[in-house]
Amino acid sequence: MYYVYLIKCIDKHGKISYYCGYTNDPVRRYKEHMTGRGARYTRSRKLEPMRVIYHVAGQPRDAMKLEKKVKKMKPVEKKYLYDESTQEITWDGNGTKK
Fold first, then answer.
1. Burial 30-54 (b: 16+ CB within 10 A, else e)
2. For residues 5 and 70, what is the distance between their CA atoms, to the nearest angstrom?
3. Residue 63 needs a FRET pair 20 to 30 A away by CA distance; which of 2, 25, 34, 71 works?
4. What pLDDT score does 96 carry?
């Protein structure tokens, strides 16, 4: 199972953006983002909880294709997907999933 996710990011000026990615382990991946070992884009921004927006059964390439579609969406569309998602992943810095 693969997951396509969004992370709400806030830059130093307060501008909100949404980082999209895919993974087979959302908790591990969010921890990587939170500890500076994730994508370069998320390293310089304050991160809100990760939200899984799609579950993808099949190959990684299927999740990658869906990720590319989400990345091409307008910010308002990404905001809608983020706000409507009910599967939230958080991490308290001690390795504990909240």
1. bbbbbeeebeeebeebebbebbbbb
2. 9
3. 34
4. 46
Total structural domains in the chain? 1
Distance of CA 91 to the CA centre of its chain: 13
pLDDT-derived band at 93, boundaries 50, 70, 90: low
How many CB atoms neighbour CB 94 within 10 A? 5
Output the pLDDT for position 98: 44
* Average pLDDT estimate for 47-60: 92
Domain holding 72, by residue range, is 2-89
Tell me what the mean pLDDT of segment 66-76 comes to: 96
pLDDT at residue 10 in the model = 95
**Is 96 inside any structural domain?**
no
Task: Answer yes or no: is 26 within a domain.
Answer: yes
Evaluate whether residue 65 is within a structural domain.
yes
